[in-house]
Input
Amino acid sequence: MVQKSAVPPSPAQTAVARVSWRILPLIGAGYLVSYMDRVNISFAAARMNADLGFGATVYGFGGGLFFLAYALFEVPSNVALERFGARRWLARIMITWGILAAAMMLVRTPWQFYGLRFLLGMAEAGFFPGVICYLALWFPRSVRGTAISRFYLTPSLAGIVMGVVSPWLLSLGWFGLKGWQWLFVIQGLPAVAIGLMVLAFLPDAPDRVAWLNNAEKGWIAAQLATEEAVLEPAEGHGVIAALRHPLVWRLGLFGFFTIGAYLTFALSAPQLLAEATGLGTAQVGLLTSLASVLAIFGMLLGGVVSDRRGERFSTMLASTGAVLICYIAMAALMQGHAAGFIAAYLVFNFAWPMVTLSNVMSWPDLLPRRHFAVGSAAINTLSQLGAFVLPSAWGVVRDGTGTFRAGLIGLALSSTIAFGLALITRAHARARAIR
Output
């Protein structure tokens, strides 16, 4: 019996596999520690606030200031990334934010809290849109959703790590330092090490590496050229032209209302879970870790499904609607319905990653290449402004009402507006035959 010889893998298959293994783990590790450093105050909050005398208004304003600074410096950061190159600029971002994240242990007053949170946001500004621009140089549209989802799932991994490690860190009392101070130091310094690794090992572009052969480089270049040819033509050039593009505003406002709502929720999730369920710190940490596992599955599912469908809007609308329902359910189940609240919380964490992933996947699919770097930064700027405005309002409402219920209703309203924006953006894309 004659055996058939195995069909060798195509340049497309080998290119995607090699790029994935060479790039995604390193920048994924960077995003993991960046997410830990921006939201670890949610775990430190109860003890830090008690030790320093911070109320919910101080905490909410300080928590949101990170995102205000992040938003203000997004576009300048991506302009600098285009000038200095992704490797050097992303490394600079990680090293500076790692130092500032660890310095949070020194906070003693509200103004010190505000100042360090603002500086941390300024240091990290541009990291996420810079990475998306970088990935768009390596992964064509047919596989980009899956690639972005693998990178983007690292916040969920961060949630698992924080849920397991943070309660232990908060119990420390070494050398006269409080547990919340050790939390900031131990979760902050890894960013410096990863930044140095990025500087040493992250490649700049496909045509500059030796580990892709000519056929693989040619496939990447041809695919990117083909998809660029069908994009909506750019009107004008430069920063102002990119900022005026209607898709930048629609996708940016979608991010404002969805990311703003999510991060508002995330910054208070441990406290909210404790209040609604009566669980202790360790149990809340385990529940947060379980939710992060579900988020990983949601993120991977969103990337695979959208790539197979060849469009992003079905995922965007379905997941945004699910998150909206979960906010309403959690508001209704805040008191005396612990099991129902936990169920809504877990479904929320499964659906949420698909909301933000679908938005991010659409940036390189819809924006003209000439506007992509500045446009993606501007979209993220609007998103981070939401992450400043909504947490600040959340803190005021919490102090005014004594409960999280009114805030959850506000987050549901934000998701309703986002759902409408998704419908409008889909109509725009269909009118121009962009999927």
Remarks:
- The domain at 11-431 is CATH 1.20.1250.20 (Growth Hormone; Chain: A;).
- The chain has 19 helices and no strands.
- The mean pLDDT is 83.
- The radius of gyration is 22 Å.
